[in-house]
Amino acid sequence: MRALRLWASLALVLALAGAAGWAYWNFEIRWRPTLITRHQQEIAALLQSSGWVAPGLAGKKLYMISFHTAPQGERFMADDFPGLQKKGVDTRVIVIARPDLNGQAQSTPAERATVAQLWLGRDWSLLTRWEADPANTWTAPGIPGADGDMARTAVVEAGRGLVVKLAPLLKDNGVVFAYPTLVWWNDKGEMRACACATRQAQARALRDLGV
Hints:
Layout: H1 2-27, E1 34-35, H2 40-49, E2 61-66, H3 71-86, E3 90-95, H4 109-121, H5 124-132, H6 150-171, E4 181-185, E5 191-195, H7 199-208
Parallel strand pairs: 2-3
Antiparallel strand pairs: 1-5, 2-4, 4-5
Helix pairs in contact: 2-6, 4-6
């Protein structure tokens, strides 16, 4: 009987330890940004040479790769960019038009036209106007179409190519690309990244950026 009680106590201790370990992983570890230690120069070069747009602040650089209607990307821009910019963080947005999937378009002609213009013109005010307009009513006013224009179509494809090149480099560091994906440098100068498709992951990124 005594041995049975000892085994029961041991089982309880192990169960509690397992539950505590799972809770620590679920609420803390799983949302931590990833320290990028491999392919740093290649990742930085890809980001820098892309068609990012930003307000032009002098502080830390934060790159966000997303597409226009990505829910968590839209929310992060609307809710958290003001606080980041108040801290001097240069929020560099790289918008891509997703490629067709199974023969179905994942972007609209207006979206492709706007993405091409953003990459070519680097106009932060255009991005803010686009974000302020409902996605289903945006007509890309005054912007040349990308479809049928070889040069602008190539720019749209360059954005898609960026994701193709960037995803395996991040994966080699343990980051599985998602929308939005964030890459930044912290106070120590370390390159950090997260596939920030959840509010929890975004909150940890903000903390790492001092917000």
